[in-house]
Amino acid sequence: MLSYFSDLRYREVIDIHTGLRLGYVCDLEFDDSDGRIISLITPGRAKMFGLLGREDDYVLPWSCIVRIGSDIILVEAKGDFMRRKRRRRLLI
Hints:
Elements: H1 5-8, E1 12-15, E2 21-24, E3 27-31, E4 36-42, E5 57-61, E6 65-68, E7 72-75, E8 82-84
Parallel strand pairs: 1-7
Antiparallel strand pairs: 1-2, 3-4, 4-5, 5-8, 6-7
């Protein structure tokens, strides 16, 4: 099965233990030297319908991914998920 990153963006991420819907993949981190994917990033939940911003993003290490299906990605959390504030990109 051949997949592109643009295909991953339309797959929902779900924790298999709690059934928590973590959202859709918005970004990924990869190692330049090895060319490997390190983690997937999904956006945090919206606060007050998005008027008050968002919670921190979920950072899902590649090792916690159980299965990538045609429409969802199943992950297994060992404890809590890592959270990270979204970095703003500078426009040049």
